[in-house]
Design goal:
Radius of gyration: 18 Å
CATH class of the largest domain: Alpha Beta
Strand content: 15-25%
Order of helices and strands: EHHEEEEEHEHEEHEHEEH
CATH superfamily of the largest domain: Dipeptide transport protein
CATH architecture of the largest domain: 3-Layer(aba) Sandwich
Largest sheet: 7 strands, mixed
Number of strands: 12
Distance between the termini: 49 Å
Number of domains: 2
């Protein structure tokens, strides 16, 4: 049974600041990168105890090269590195029985959510698909859905789990911390968090028959609210995008994979507008 894991970092136990997640930080980041990696390993171990065999990990945080290879089982493959066309969902195919999202966080604007944002905190404020407010988990799960792959596990803070389960009731959530605003947490110890993730992974695999792929009905309408109007100026240059307001654009397509690629192009081009 093949398993896909998209691994983010902000939802890791004890993480509560951007410095802990910033590869440029040479003091805190190395330690929390280690904790992130061990949570991925715990998810793999739990899944394998419940029947998973082949595992593909997609490093899905920041520059997309954070998970430490020496913290994972030797037979696990990993997608590593930046500029991936499908970003946090790169490598998803119909060969996978299920997907896990580890270390995830809530969407921008969600209250009492650790480091909440939507892909790029300085560029994207809000994303809607067919009128549905989307987190990163929502967007990535819908791409998995185009392959017929259900997302069955998510780990992170309480707000992250609550938001995911409101859209995917079948998903098993592992809450590793309670957020106190955006930059403080009441967290489980890293060791206890890993034990909970291991157990949650086993539980998620045992409930696989209850899960279903998450999808949006075509035609699919993507709406993006940027943080700044100049970011929308750049995104509007992409063929197919329509300006809908000072900071907002819209893109419509029959195929969700094309919607996802358009979103990736829009936030990357929008990010370029941040440079003077």
């Amino acid at each position: 049974m093949k398993l896909y894991i998209s691994a983010d970092m902000e939802g890791t136990a004890a993480v509560c600041s951007w410095q802990q997640c910033d590869p440029n930080n040479l003091t805190e980041y190395p330690y929390y990168r280690h904790l992130m990696s061990l949570e991925v390993r715990a998810a793999i171990e739990g899944a394998r105890q419940a029947g998973a065999t082949d595992v593909l990990v997609n490093d899905s945080h920041s520059r997309l090269r954070n998970v430490l290879w020496n913290e994972l089982p030797q037979d696990v493959r990993m997608i590593y590195g930046n500029r991936k066309p499908f970003s946090m969902a790169q490598g998803l195919t119909s060969d996978f029985a299920a997907a896990f999202f580890t270390g995830y966080h809530a969407p921008a604007g969600e209250p009492n959510a650790t480091l909440e944002h939507s892909y790029t905190p300085s560029t994207i404020y809000n994303v809607r698909v067919n009128g549905t407010r989307c987190s990163e988990a929502t967007l990535n799960a819908a791409l998995a859905g185009t392959c017929g792959v259900p997302v069955i596990l998510i780990t992170g803070d309480q707000a992250t789990v609550d938001f995911a389960q409101s859209q995917m009731p079948w998903i098993t959530g592992v809450v590793v911390k309670e957020s106190i605003g955006k930059f403080a947490v009441n967290s489980m110890s890293p060791e206890e968090a890993r034990a909970a993730i291991r157990q949650g992974a086993q539980r998620a695999m045992s409930r696989l028959q209850e899960a279903r792929p998450f999808t949006f009905t075509a035609p699919v309408t993507l709406e993006i609210d940027f943080v700044l109007s100049e970011q929308a100026d750049f995104a509007e240059l992409i063929p197919g995008f329509e300006r809908r307001g000072g900071r907002s654009v819209r893109f419509v397509h029959e195929d969700y994979a094309s919607i996802f690629r358009a979103f990736v192009a829009a936030f990357r081009l929008g990010s370029a507008a941040n440079q003077p």
